[in-house]
Amino acid sequence: MNQINYDEIISQLKTELNSECAIANIYGIILASNIKEFFKGKVIPHKILSLISNSKGIADELNLNKINSFALEAQEYNYLFTFSEELILISKLNLNMNLAKYMPSISVFLNKLNEKYKEQEITEFSLFDFSKEIKKIQDTFKEKKGSDKKYSIIKDLVKFIATE
After folding, report:
1. pTM of the predicted structure, to 2 decimals
2. Are 62 and 138 members of one domain?
């Protein structure tokens, strides 16, 4: 199964969309990035993750089907957080970027990436033979019992000397 090369995806996004991006898993761990504030291996701040995880509840309160993304406006940039079931895409955009044009294309991209991420998951499990493992454990106990009897004379001698 092919692993997804997130670093390559990030560099393509930089070229195609002219924006710095980061990809994180749903737990907030950055998988790849060219945003200095969200470097690879860092965890997205808890309050932002909380907002993402509560987006279903927020959508319900607003009578919306779902919320796909939200934007934070900072002094020099907009940070767009677009999320799916498994991944979070962070885009660092200039303040003059038209979000209405950018957001639909980035949402479609993230949904495609999310599908690839799901394909990467393990779907088949090998059968585990518990009987072999139980047999190994039983053999270990038999060996242990045998070794206990083997040295019982020495143990008795040590006990006798210790009590004298």
Report:
1. 0.63
2. no
